[in-house]
Every structure is written in C-alpha cells, then in structure tokens.
Amino acid sequence: MSKTYYDPSDLRKFGKITDWSKDLGEKFFEYYGKVFEEGALTAREKSLIALAVAHTEQCPYCIDAYTKDGLQRGITKEEMMEAIHVGAAIKSGATLVHGVQMMNKVNKLDM
Amino acid sequence: MALKSLKKRNNSLANSKRQLEILSNGIFKSGELPTFKESVSSTNQFPIKSKPLEILQINLGYMCNQVCAHCHVDAGPDRQEIMTKETMQQCIDVIKKTSAHTLDLTGGAPEMNPNFEWFVEEASKVGIKDFIVRSNLTIITSNKKYNHLPEFFKKHNVHVVSSMPHWTQGKTDKQRGNGVFSKSIEALEMLNAVGYGMPNSKLKLDLVYNPSGAFLPGNQMGLETKFKKALKEDFNIKFHNLFAITNLPISRFLDYLIASENYEDYMTELVDAYNPEAVKNVMCTNTISVSWDGWLYDCDFNQMLNLKVASESKHISTFNEELLSNRTIITSQHCYGCTAGTGSSCQGAVV
Predict the structure, then answer these.
(1) Which pLDDT belongs to residue A2?
(2) DSSP letter at B334?
(3) B223 shares contact with chain A (CB less than 8 Å)
(4) Does residue B256 contact residue B247 with C-beta atoms inside 8 Å?
(5) What InterPro entries is this protein classified in (chain B) (predicted)?
(6) pLDDT tens across B179-233, in order?
(7) Closest Cα of chain B to A86: distance in Å?
(8) Of B327, B227, B246, the residue nearest B287 (C-alpha)
C-alpha cells in the first residue's frame, strides 16, 4: 500500500498548523503546554489521562506520542494498559447507558 | 538477551570504524538530518573547545559480570581488556599532579580488575575531592570475595554511583539480565546498612537511570522523585541523587536500534531535541577519559569509538595538562546524545 491517510512522520509537523493561522495556532500550543504542566494533577497523571483519551479518540499520533511520553516518565506497560481500560470502560459504559433510553422508548411504545 | 559481547560474536559493530561509518552515512549523508558539526556551527559553537580539567575518568577494563543490552562499552565476562598495574601506577602519578577535583573509576565492572583495591587505596591517599566508583551493584553480591566492598568503599570514602534502570523488576531485568533487580536491591541494602545514601550522610550513593529502550529519559527530577518513593516504600532503600543519562547510539545500543528498526527515528528525536544550552556544559569539555591501555579520550564514548584526543599528549605516560587544555573536542553524530533536551553526562542532565 503506497498511500495512507496517516503518516507517522506528520506528527513532527504538528507545529506547522500555526503557519496558516498564526494567532490561533500559537494560542492552542500555549494552552496545550500549560495543560500538561505540573498542577493539581502531576504531569505523570496527566500523561496517563492523555494516553487513555488518545485511545478513545483513536488518534494514532496521540497514541504514539503518549506511549513514548509514558516510557520517558518510567510509566510501566501495566499502568498504561490499565489506563486504556479506563477509557474503554467509559466508552462501553457510554454505549450501554443509552440502553436505558431504548428501554424507556420500548416501555412507552410497546403495549 | 545475548550473553556474549558483540566482539565475541564477531559482530561488525564491534568495529569502531563500522560504527562511525553508520553514524556518518544514511540520513546524515543524504542531508535529511543535519550533522552534529552543522548543528553546532548553526549556533556558533563549533569547534567545541575543552575548558580546565575537572574530571579524570579512568576505565579499568571492559570485563563485567553483566551483559546489558544497551552497553556502550560492549562489556561482558568475555572481555579480556584489563588495565595493568603498570598503567595504574602511571594514572596514580597523574592523579598526584592533576588539577582535576574528581576521579571517576569505571569499566566494565571496575571491581573485577585484580588490582582494583590496591588502586583505590593508592588513589585515596592523594586526597582528591570527589572519588567516584561506578559500580553495577550486582558485582557486590555476585561472589563472596566482593561482599566486603561496601565496607571497603566506606573506608576510603568512595562516592558510589550505581546503575538502576527502573524501580520495578520487569524493566530492570529486561535491560540488564534476569535476577539483576533483586541482586541490585540486595546490594543497595548492604550499602545503606553501612551508611551509604542516608540523608545527611557523607557517604554518597547516587543512582544512574538510563532508558530501557529507544526513547529519551524524562525529566530527571521527576524520575528521581518516583525512584525515591518506590524504593523507599517497597524496600526501605535510600539514595541521594538520580542521574538520568541518554543512551548514545554506539556499540550494543546502536546494534539494538538498527535491529529493532528504531535507528532513524531515534536519531531524528535526538536531532530534534538538540539544545545549544547543553552544548555549553557537555562533559567532554572538562573531562579526560583514560582507557584500560592508557590512551586519552575526550569522553568514554569517544574511547569506545577509538577517537583519541586531538592533542600531542595522547597517552597517560605522556600526560600533559597544559597540552590538553583548550583542545578541540572530537565529535560525530553520537554527540547528539549529550546535547538532547536537558543534556546528558556521566553526572546526568547538564542544563
């Protein structure tokens, strides 16, 4: 396969989004950087949250980035997998909780 | 994990010329990535010149009881290169007259040199300010004849710097071999027991962390906090500082990078993280590295690549600090490892 929608090397070019909208791009990266600073949550905790969200969003760039970020912080593979399960549990829970809406509708319509 | 050195396996990467070829060709020859010289020139810092000598680092030999996957020395039990007592005496003569305030013994496992203890006793008499021995920890418990080392180090006020790639067994053993973690913990307990690493203790115990794969070390302070908390909670072990060191793309780590198809990505990451501030403090500018056979190098990595100092004084037998001062540091693309992010040295980050 010669062409794909995703190219791993595009991650390095992320900063270039600023080229076509300097002000908004810079504001985004400033915000992004600030979010991941040590705060009420540690940078390590934020990295694990980012990894879980990267999976629920199914963003390959984010998965590459926050897997490496986790390794750099000494986060173990067991911790990473547990974080992903948290994301997966919320995803599946979010699907299933809509089952109540289905049940409500059935109960209303069905004799 | 291979149990033999690259040299024993007749691997082409045991040859320093082959390593230098790889580091100069490919993505650097095609212009995809700038060479180290180009990057340093772009920030007007080329050539890098040495400053007054502060650290004399002596490699007592490449023999080691471990065969770590990332080892830049290609050390192991099968390596026979060991410093002779005659060369050691030449080192002592230099230590007596040098202005360096730090003496740093490394290897291999320096303790495996049969004249190691004699050398430490003689060198400690000179009264150098900071006397470091880089111990892999497991050597202390590997054989009864080494069990007394914590007491021996204490007697000579040696500053112990030990390798510890992670606070968990899985990651440690993967990099350094099965059983290394539990043996290291045992050795740390022995060092703590004689006073090493205790808060306010003059017996300094520092740990060296280097990543267990193709990624850069994270923030040194953050890692130190995590190491301290985990080792204290799990084993009641204490230590002073953690040095986070970047793996340089040479020898066994280069072999790993190529075999795992991580070489280009890793070099790209190092180049992207190039930091001119780190260039100002790279260790080669205040260090002389002495090989087991007495040759002089800008650093331990250049020693392994057989890149001798650019000076008329090239050997410990003709050591001349004046001739070595303000020399031009020999560089290649492996040097990106010491200038990435917050930089890397045998004392950890430099920025």
Answers:
(1) 61
(2) G
(3) yes
(4) no
(5) Aldolase_TIM, ArsS-like_C, rSAM, rSAM_ArsS-like, rSAM_sf
(6) 899 999 999 999 999 999 999 999 999 999 999 899 999 999 999 999 999 999 9
(7) 23
(8) B327
Contact B216 A12 (CB under 8 A): no
**Residue in chain A nearest B166 by alpha carbon:** A74
Could you tell me if residue A54 is inside a domain?
Answer: yes
The answer to whether B233 contacts chain A (CB < 8 Å) is no
Asked if residue B276 lies in contact with residue B43, where contact means CB atoms within 8 angstroms, the answer is: yes
- CATH code of the domain in which A55 resides: 1.20.1290.10
Interface check for B143 against chain A (CB to CB < 8 A): the answer is no
Domain count, chain A: 1
Give me the amino acid identity at B47.
Answer: P
CATH topology of domain B12-339: TIM Barrel (3.20.20)
pLDDT digits over B217-231, tens only?
Answer: 999 999 999 999 999
Q: Which residues in chain B have their CB less than 8 angstroms from residue A69's CB?
A: 218
Provide the ipTM. Answer: 0.79
Is the CB of B218 less than 8 angstroms away from the CB of A76?
no
Output the CA torsion sign for B236, B237, B243, B245.
Answer: negative
Tokens of residue B287, six digits: 């260090």
